[in-house]
Amino acid sequence: MGAKDTGRNRGTLAHRAGYALRHPGRVPAHARRALRDTWLRLLHRDHIAYYRAVMASDAARGAEAAVGHNPSREQWARIGRMQFDYLLRHGLRPDHRMLEIGCGNLRAGRLFIDHLEPGHYYGIDISPHILLAAQDTLVRDGLQAKLPYLSLANDLTFAFLPDGHFDVVHAHSVFSHSPRHVIEECFAHVGRVLAPGGFFDFTFDRTEGEEHQVLHEDFYYRTETLVELAAGYGLTARFMDDWEELPHRQSKMRLTAMSDRARTVGP
């Protein structure tokens, strides 16, 4: 499954101590993050509310700070292009309807919106701060005529969205920040909004060792855990080996409905 380092448990004291010794310059930033985590966890017991507060804290430092750990503009654009090119190779057509979970400030969404027909892109996010940044991206790229939908979400039940509407559902770097119950909520409801033949692509931080989390912000899962969880909600999972060839540290999986006899929209 590629050359990613999937054996380490980044949550152990031994790993953190070793990391600090190898990267002493990063210790102050990590300490500030740990203090923030402790404070926000006291304020917000619900994970969605907690992570919304994390994003608000990040966004206060700059629009891109809430997506991808404050990358450069060049890296921001590169990762967005990587997502877009991948789905384009897998059959994304202008007439498809797309739901992007965790659309952020449209790192990839701006490319999806430009490619899709007007009104065919629906982006949701838990952060009002980042959705305002997404509006700025639309203006900067001149995409107003594409009439994308951008909505604030408080969960992943998709209760306000219609049945069988989306050919493609996409979530990049969402489950890497999600505990199991949030992922399970998504799996329990995403099949309802998928159109016949549609698929749901998502990335996740993969481990081949013990599943763990770091500061309640980064979560690492075994592939088989997510496959079994999806199967419990009538979804067939496929590990996307070709994504492993790309320069991205997360892995990708695709879900389709077990009951769907139609050919999926992508190869």
TrEMBL record:
<dbReference type="Pfam" id="PF08242">
    <property type="entry name" value="Methyltransf_12"/>
</dbReference>
<feature type="domain" description="Methyltransferase type 12">
    <location>
        <begin position="99"/>
        <end position="200"/>
    </location>
</feature>
<dbReference type="InterPro" id="IPR050723">
    <property type="entry name" value="CFA/CMAS"/>
</dbReference>
<keyword id="KW-0808">Transferase</keyword>
<dbReference type="GO" id="GO:0008168">
    <property type="term" value="F:methyltransferase activity"/>
</dbReference>
<keyword id="KW-0443">Lipid metabolism</keyword>
<keyword id="KW-0489">Methyltransferase</keyword>
<comment type="similarity">
    <text>Belongs to the CFA/CMAS family.</text>
</comment>
<keyword id="KW-0949">S-adenosyl-L-methionine</keyword>
<protein>
    <submittedName>
        <fullName>Class I SAM-dependent methyltransferase</fullName>
        <ecNumber>2.1.-.-</ecNumber>
    </submittedName>
</protein>
<dbReference type="InterPro" id="IPR029063">
    <property type="entry name" value="SAM-dependent_MTases_sf"/>
</dbReference>
<dbReference type="GO" id="GO:0032259">
    <property type="term" value="P:methylation"/>
</dbReference>
<dbReference type="InterPro" id="IPR013217">
    <property type="entry name" value="Methyltransf_12"/>
</dbReference>
